[in-house]
Amino acid sequence: MELSHFDREGNAIMVDVTQKEVTDRTAQARGRIRVSKAVYEAVEKGTAAKGDVLGVARIAGIMAAKQTANLIPLCHVLKITKASVDFHLLKEECEIEAVCTVRVAGKTGVEMEALTGVSTAILTIYDMCKAVDKGMEIGEIYLAYTSFKNTVVHIPKLVKLLPFTMEEQAGESGENKAQALMNYEPNPEEVLDRITPNYMSSLIYGALLEAVASENGARMTAMDSATNNAEEMIGKLELQYNRARQGSITQELTEIIAGANAIS
């Protein structure tokens, strides 16, 4: 798969979306942060020293989603029509889940805006509570999108973006696991530092393609249904018109014949 943000010479570019149609697009991203019991209770009861943790985190996430193009160099500047951040308190896991949903009527998707929003919301929770617990762990970041299967079936998918681990990407087979645990030169950390950005870009780009295909498929199905309904409506109107026209002609002929008989 070719990376869309590089030209043939390897120069970084912004993707040209000039010829694309304006469509309604939605993206959702999820992330979690694991906290101590003390932090969880403070957030739940609203007794944290810095104030309303979730309220501030919500505003931070929304502001970050609106500023994504200023943070990610090659993102398009979009006039987003909705940005929301919601939280779920998971008592048993002692975790806080953030969900960022972004919508736009535009020529490109808002996946990066949703990811930026949810990441900033979680980081804000950490910042407001780090005085109580510096051992908080930012957990999994997910991207939610719709995968296109055919014009009728569109499958919602949830893909984990972070954390990125070699074992998960290697699969469950013994051979792949063995390869994942081998020693490499350069070491795995250096390799991951190089391939992870490309992997993330490819994954997000693939999700964008799936979402666009799903959206276009739904649009084509709707247009086909509208065309069939229009043809059926036109057929009924033609039939009604012909009946009315035939009735009018018959009435005119009857009047002419009656007038002729009266004159004679």
Q: Can you walk me through this structure?
A:
It is a single chain. The protein is built from seven helices and five strands; from the N terminus they run βαααββαββααα. The chain has a single domain (23-221), classed as Alpha-Beta Plaits, CATH 3.30.70.640. It is elongated, with a radius of gyration of 30 Å. A five-stranded antiparallel beta sheet has the order 2-3-1-4-5. By secondary structure, the protein is α+β, with helices and mostly antiparallel strands. The protein has helices spanning 37-45, 53-66, 68-71, 111-129, 166-170, 174-180, 188-263; strands spanning 23-34, 80-90, 95-106, 137-148, 154-162.
Helical content band: 40-55%
CATH topology heading: Alpha-Beta Plaits
For the record, the count of structural domains works out to 1
Biggest sheet strand line-up: 2-3-1-4-5
Name the beta content range: 15-25%
Assembly type of the chains comes to single chain
- What CATH architecture would you give? 2-Layer Sandwich
SSE order, as H and E? EHHHEEHEEHHH
Report the total helices: 7
Strand and helix layout:
Blueprint: E1 23-34, H1 37-45, H2 53-66, H3 68-71, E2 80-90, E3 95-106, H4 111-129, E4 137-148, E5 154-162, H5 166-170, H6 174-180, H7 188-263
Antiparallel strand pairs: 1-3, 1-4, 2-3, 4-5
Helix pairs in contact: 2-4
